[in-house]
Amino acid sequence: MDGLTRYRDLVESLSQVVYEIDTTGRITYANRVAAEKFGITPAALERGVRVPELLIAEDRERAGRNMQRIAAGESVGTNEYTVCGPNGRLVPVVIDSTPILEDGKIVGMRGVLLDISRQKQLDAQLEESNRLAAIGTLAAGLAHEINNPLTSVLGNIQVLDLLLGKIGATLDPKTATSLNEVLAELVTGAKRVATITRDLSVLARADDGPAEPVLIDTAVDEAMGIARNQVAHSATMRREGATGLLVEGRQHRLVQVFTNLLVNAAQHLPESGQEYEIVISVRAAGESVVCEVRDTGPGIPEALLPRIFEPFVTGRPEAGTGMGLAICNRIVQSMSGKISARNLEGGGASFEVCIPVSRKSVPGKREQGTIELSGLKVLLVDDDASVRQVLALFLAGAQVETASGGAEAIELLATAHFDVVLCDLMMPGVSGRDVYQSVLADRPDQARGFVFITGGAFKPEIEAFVRTVDAPVMSKPIDHDELRQVVHTTARADSRA
Prior knowledge:
By secondary structure, this protein is α/β, with parallel strands linked by helices. Helices cover 47% and strands 22% of the residues.
């Protein structure tokens, strides 16, 4: 085998495009990969193909200048361009060319063209990951700063509601009704703020507890009830498909996903007077349950489809922030599920949520009623005085001592035993984790009585601790009845140990 044949065989075996052009930019040779990827076949070469013709319009003038510089003996290094393939697909490439010399004269150029599509995808994924991390850090910080005062506001509203229930009979009916209506409005407003902070927390950390069996009918029906008023102005709404299916997830998060999808569908229906329909359907699909939310509207703009689940991407900026679908995506992924979007033939958009099926049974409902805490000794640890105050009111009946930080809590725990230690996780200086680990080392019996509360903004080491600690973790704002139930259950479990 002579040298020229060996050279040709080597070039033809490469996975990169190798080419030669004359001084006018006309391609005189291209290897096998050029034909496979870009349609530069021998027949095309005979007809005549110039390099600028392969590039998008924005790159042609720059490529022409670079070829002139190479022909003049200059070095232009590696340059990035976008090639328009035979099927119209745009391919990012880098080209490195050198002059071809004959008798000391430049008669053309040869070079290598490398497809960098995969590198671009990885760069985009890294950029998106960094952007989401930055958004998550900001969101978690905001949620934490809001949740402490919100715990105080919502907690005091609940205390007022309880007091009104006790004195309501002494008031005239009109006054009692007015006070109840005002309190109801306050609760609604505060819970809306709580929902927003939970949404912010989801952007930072979608996993907020272990998965459990959820009856999909319950989550769908609750979401339809929440979204009904917002949907009613834009479309009719109905559900169809299978019933009685169990999935492995978290009910309140699934309700949030379906509510977001229903409201999103309604918000993107044009105000044209046309009658639209939004349908939520459920079906079994092997080891998963698929819930589809579809509408009969105009569908999703094609340019938005690839980015539809990114934060702050929206087809109607006046209708929302663009957070809803990103939150849905994070929640579904945290449940080992998938969410996808597509346009339907004949019009309309479809969002499908795929969640793993559950083989467990739904736990029975907790008995309702007043939970008695009398006789219990509780240590309440939180660096926010307003939170300590309202949670102490929640624990009426128990003997409550308070500590304003981790160091003070450790001192108290060194000399006294408590049935329950209600401890904030994120505190300056000595954290809730530090308090727990100190007690666990010296008094493991006391460690069994810990209940943690948090407003968010987890550090990596705190997140790892939450995933492994054998103790309840409650998120702020704290609900009155739920707190009393958790404290009661923890105290009983500790007394039986």
